[in-house]
Amino acid sequence: MGRHKNISKVFKRLKDPKGLIIAAGRRIKTFFARLLKLAGEHKVWTAVICIAVLLVTITAVNAIRAGRSLENSGLEIRAERRDIEEKISGDTVVEPNNEYSITAAVSGTILSDTFEEGDKVSKDDVLYVIDSSELENNIQSADIAIAKAKKAYDDAVLENNNTYRDTGSASSSLRSAELAVEKAQQSYSDALKAQSDLNIKSNYSGSVSELHVSVGDNITAGTAIADIVDNTSLEIKIPFNAADADNIHAGDAAKVTLTKNGSVIDGVVTAVSAYTESGGGFTLYRKVTIEVRNPGAVSSGDTASAMVGNIACGDTGTFENKTESTITSTVSGEIQSLYISEGSTVSDGQAIAAVKSDTVESQVVSAKLSLDDANEALTRARIQNDSTASSTSLNNNKLSSAVDNAKMSYDDAVLSKERLLKQLEDYTIKAPISGTVVTKNKKAGDDALGSASSASSYASSGGSAAASASSGMTSSSSLSASSSSSAMAVIYDMSRLKCTLNVDEIDVKDVKVGQKVTITTDVTDKEYTGVVETVSVNGTAGSNGVTTYPVKVDIIDFDDALLPGMNIEASIVISSVHDVLAIPTSSLNRGDTVYVKGEKTDESDAAPEGYRTVSVVTGVSDDEYIQIISGLNEGDELYSSVQEMTPAEMMMNMQNNAAGAQSGPGGPGGSGGMGGGM
Questions:
Q1: What would the DSSP string read from start to end of 51-83?
Q2: Is 500 helix (H, G, I), strand (E, B) or coil?
Q3: Whole-angstrom Cα distance, residue 370 to residue 567?
Q4: How many CA atoms within 13 Å lie on the side-chain side of 530?
Q5: Which single residue of 378, 449, 542, 592 has CA 20 to 30 Å from 190?
Q6: Measured between alpha carbons, how far is 544 from 606 in angstroms, rounded to an integer?
Q7: In which band, very low, low, confident or very high, does the pLDDT at 452 lie, cut at 50, 70 and 90?
């Protein structure tokens, strides 16, 4: 099936000799780049490579001459409509999403391994079990040390308690007396508070809108006495067009116009609603809250419109009192006096009513007597405690120190065992991620040789393993380096595949996150698709003086045929046009002119016989074709200006191009500083 596809491609090229020549040039260019890289790494092959280069060059020259011969023998080149994609291309390698090197944190013989290279593993799967018998013996010793320390601590506590028993009674009596005083003091304070609350005071300033009680009424705690309204400041919420509301902010000055008489009042914006609502006529609005000082003629329920700067509202709003509160009683009793009436003005802290309560007065007297009794009992308890404590204080200090030391020894023994148990987890190494095992360097019977390494540590929930994670690899050499023998195993996370293109400083400005990337490989005929994931600003200067920037590409439709380390060609589509007039790039002369078949209109026209020079405006181009914006019509027959080149010139040109591709920071894996990214 693959052979049939290749044959169809050949026939397709044969129908377009010009395209065949260009495709051959691209293949030769890639071939030279890889040959030069091989020559640089293996000098013994230099002579062989030079012979191969000469043979390929002669073959290429013959192919190009054959193509030109076709062209000069009547091959028609016409302006035609086609799709063109402008790309930045380069060779690179497939990379896994991430790479993890598994290393041991402890030494010991590996008792078991549960996987082989190529296996797929899930996160937290057990990979290795290391012999922990020596550590388990240490844990048993730690248990014995804990038991001894616990016995010493219990003995110290028991001796200390026996000594304190004689003084405990006095100390307990003192504490009880202190608690009794605190309780009596609290009861007395509560009674005084209740007595003070018999004079009911307002917690607000404003006007009395409603009075709920009369003199002689019996009330309970929580009874509403009066409603207070502060109408010195009013708020109004007015709808504004949603787009206009974006330009209104808290603190902006506003002009509010009363609907009832047209009076204008100054106000200040205090809030702009973040919620957008729908109005009539499919309009969207947001409410703006404006606060105004009441001049005396505005009441709650009045309506008004507003202007904020030069922005007008979309509809009217309704005034509301800024503060409406209710004063309640905190005591029970009979209303003896009222100092306010409906409509009167009150201020914060002003007395508004007096309540009579025999119960509260009785509670004050009783609480005071209880407090006096408690203070006398406390004095007696202190005298008794001081007398007992003075005779045993020195001995108590020694016993307390012994208890503290025993407790610290016990705690230290427990911590030592916890550290050993934590270390025991390191003897079971689990997979830090789900992925594919690409390297296995250790097996059952080997020594884990746990030691410090450059790998970062990874601790799973049921075990511990050191794992180094690398991403952003730019060449196949970095992939092979990851499989170092210093790691017990290496796992690739292939939930996603990526690649990195090194784009030169001229082209990188055209690369944007999200752009489409086409990916091809010699391994399979399938064309894969990717997207630009990141464009780094950390450039690397090459030996040719050109700085390149790594562009990370996410391959979104990879399959099992595409594996990390494979060589691929990636092309970033930076622009594309569809169904546009286009000509082969070889037909375009310097100065954006072409030779069109027809009679000349200017005697100084240097076009070949039978052709005339026409100026054109060009657009997007690719390897083979360039867009013609103006100057030509579909079907115009053109003359190709491809010039002859000697074999020596062809050899030198190909070698220079290949060397330029190799000299970039990414080597053949990068864009190689190719003009236009091609």
A1: HHHHHHHHHHHHHHHHHHHHHHTT--EE-EEEE
A2: strand
A3: 95
A4: 28
A5: 378
A6: 38
A7: very low
Alpha-helical (H) ranges within 459-574 are 476-481
Report which of 458, 368, 420, 418 is spatially closest to residue 127, judged by C-alpha positions. Answer: 458
Token pair 């105004």 in the structure block, residue: 292
Is residue 111 within 8 Å of 130, Cβ to Cβ?
yes
DSSP assigned state of 203: S
Taking the C-alpha atoms of residue 291 and residue 32, their distance in angstroms, rounded to an integer, is 79
Buried b (16+ CB within 10 A) or exposed e, 428-463: bbbbbbebbbbbbbbeeeeebebeebebeebbbeeb
Report d(CA 423, CA 130) in Å as an integer: 12
- Give the whole-angstrom CA distance, residue 131 versus residue 134: 8
Token representation of residue 138: 């240490």
CA distance 467 to 103: 6
Question: pLDDT per residue over 548-580, tens digit each?
Answer: 999 999 999 999 889 999 999 999 998 889 999
List, in order, residues 6 or more apart from 212 with CB less than 8 Å away.
Answer: 223, 224, 225, 226, 227
Higher pLDDT, 635 or 481: 635
Residues 6+ apart with CB under 8 A from 184: 367, 370, 371, 373, 374, 375
Classify residue 654 as exposed, middle or buried by CB count within 10 Å of its CB (0-12, 13-18, 19+).
buried
Find residue 521's DSSP bridge partners. Answer: 524
The two structure tokens encoding residue 638: 């053109």
For residue 215, what are the CA distances in angstroms to 187, 208, 345, 350?
A: 30, 17, 19, 18
Cα distances from 34 to residues 38, 315, 452, 655, 657, in angstroms, run: 6, 74, 39, 11, 12
Cβ count within 10 A of residue 310: 7
364 in Cβ contact with 195 (< 8 Å):
yes
Mean pLDDT of 615-637: 92
> CB-based burial of residue 301 (10 Å sphere; 0-12 exposed, 13-18 middle, 19+ buried)?
exposed
Residue showing tokens 């550290």 = 419
Residue 101, token pair as written in the block: 């090197």
Give the model confidence (pLDDT) of 126-168 as tens digits.
999 999 888 888 888 889 999 988 888 888 888 777 766 656 6
236 neighbors 306 (Cβ within 8 angstroms): yes
Strand-strand pairing, 457-459 and 120-121: unpaired
Above 80 in pLDDT, residue 658? no
The answer to pTM > 0.70 is no
- Measure the CA–CA gap between 507 and 675, rounded to whole angstroms: 8
Residue with the larger pLDDT of the pair 297 and 530 = 530
What pLDDT, on a 0 to 100 scale, did the predictor assign at position 458? Answer: 33
Range of lowest pLDDT (177-191, 269-283, 345-359, 480-494): 480-494
> What are residue 319's DSSP bridge partners?
236
Distances (CA, A) of 544 to 63, 173, 541, 548, 657: 31, 93, 8, 11, 12
Q: Above 60 in pLDDT, residue 394?
A: no
Q: In which order are the strands placed within the sheet that holds 218-219?
A: 199-201, 351-356, 333-338, 218-219
Q: What's the CA angle centered on 334, arms 333 and 339, to 5 degrees?
A: 120
Query: Closest by alpha carbon to 595, among 581, 580, 616, 623?
Result: 616
